[in-house]
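Exercise: predict the fold of this chain.
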Amino acid sequence: MSESDGHEEPPAAQRCGLIAIVGRPNVGKSTLLNALVGQKISITSAKAQTTRHRITGIRTVDDTQFVFVDTPGFQTRHGAALNRTLNRTVQGVLADVDVVLFVVEAGRFGLDDAKVLSLIQGDGMKDKPVFLIANKLDAVQRRAELMPWLKGMQDRHAFAEFVPLSAKKAADMERLLQIIRPYLPEQGWFYEEDALTDRSERFLASEIIREKLFRLTGDELPYTSTVVIDKFEEEGHLRRIAASIVVERDAHKGMIIGSGGERLKRIGSEARQELEQLMDAKVFLELFVKVRSGWAADEDHLRSYGYE
């Protein structure tokens, strides 16, 4: 209708929904989340168990708001309290969502992938649409070899969609968003249009420091290391941050500090630069290394360090 009729056109129906990203450790879930959101909000590293928290990433396109939930890679060794906590996080996420993105490497399916798939096939998941996301497509030499693999995957589960892609290609991300859209319910958005994540700057600071820690220590440092923010002060365009890197042994402390303190300086320098870019502010960052024996096996310690 025209404005002269005294009536306004009703707004287009908004869509909004929760999308879980699940898969075994190291399959590229955090890279995919960052690419879908269009900005880095989840840390990436070659070390398994890098993502330890449920991280929400938000992307709003036209009338649709996509709310992505990154999860820890499902842990197949249930021994430590940390592993049990991570697995509870995955199971809690799956109960809430509208769509599940099951991420595997294109052409590969191993025992750890099968364990995650069995979780998706559990009680309460019967009616949830599950997409098979065949990531790292750029690493497949002969695409024709994917057809028998795909047939085998379809025999394992009735996937709602099969989406081969590379998380490094923007066009693939746009295509995936278009495929997801019709599966999301028509309802109002959960967040503001320009929101990217529901996590605080304080939380993102700890994640980025932890990423640099893992990237710069390589395989030397066991995954049972974490970062705790001791101080986070905001003064206009300035952030004063003090953080403790918590490890289980004195030997690990030495690995992080490095010869003459060089490695710790580099971790701090790289984290500070990325935080300044992310927060669009000047950052003063102090890092300390503390030894807390057995923290990853202690439920109380885990809660005090922010694990759900």
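Check your answer against the key: The CA atoms of residues 76 and 112 lie 7 Å apart.
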